[in-house]
C-alpha cells in the first residue's frame, strides 16, 4: 500500500514509518523536510507546510494514496482540511486523537471507548480541540464521505520525545536522580497509570491501515501494565542505581501557578490513566502493547546517553525553587502546631 503520513518524524509517527517499511508498504512523508536524516532512500518525501492551505492542496492534487495517516491535526479545522483534500484521493483516513479528549472522571475504569464521553469544556484547550475534531469526524463518518479511523494514544514516550515527567523535562529526571536532587511529584504519586511507548502505539496505526474492520471506529491504544505515577521515577532510579527523592505538591496549586505548564496534570493526569484495549485487539490483531515500563525507560535512557542531551537549566532551576517552597511551607505548617 502507498501510505501518506502527515507528519512522519514525530515520536509515534517515526515508528509508524519503520513498521510500514517492515511490512513492505510504501510510506510517503509530508512535512517541512527538516529531519530527512531519520530515514534512508526507501522513504518518499513531499515537503511543505499544512498551515498553508492552498499550497498544501496544490501539492497533493496530483497524488492518490491507499491510506492517509494524519498525525498533525489538532482541531476540527485541521481535520476538515485533510478530509477535503483526500476524500477523492485516498481510500482511508486515519487520525491521531488522544485519550485526553475523554471527559474526566471516567465512567468506566479501565476506560472503554464506547462508554466514555468527549470533553465539552474549553478550559483545557488541547483536550477540547481534539474532542471537537472527533465530533467533526463523526459527522464525516455518518455522511459516508470517506472511511475514517480514529486512534487515541495516551501518554506515550519514545525516541525524540521531550514529554516525560511532571515538568516534561526528560533528561533532567535522570540528572536530578543521579545528583540526589529532589523531584516534584503531583499529588501523592499514587494515581494509577499505564505508561505506553511509541513502538507499541505505532502498531495501532500500522495495523489499522487498510483494515476495513476499523472503518468508522475509534480506539485507544495503550499499555495495560498497572503502575502508579510514582513508579515512573522509581523505575528510573533503579536503572541508574539511585533512589529518587520526591516531594509531593498539589496539582491544583501547580495549575493555578502556571496553567500552561501544569494543565495536563490538573485536567488529565490527576485521574486514572487505565484503558481497556479489548476493542483494538479484536479489530487489529497485530496491535501490541507489551513494552514494560522498565524496558521502555531503558530505551529512553540509552537514547539520552547516545545523543548527549543537555540538562534544561531553566526547568532545573524551577524545580529547585518548587522544592525549596515545599520545604518552606512544611516548616511554616509545623510552626502552627
From TrEMBL:
Enzyme Commission (EC) number: 1.1.1.355
Keyword terms: Oxidoreductase
One term of GO molecular function: oxidoreductase activity
Cross-referenced Pfam families: Epimerase
Top enzyme class: oxidoreductase
Domain NAD-dependent epimerase/dehydratase as annotated: residue spans: 3-211
Protein name: 2'-dehydrokanamycin reductase
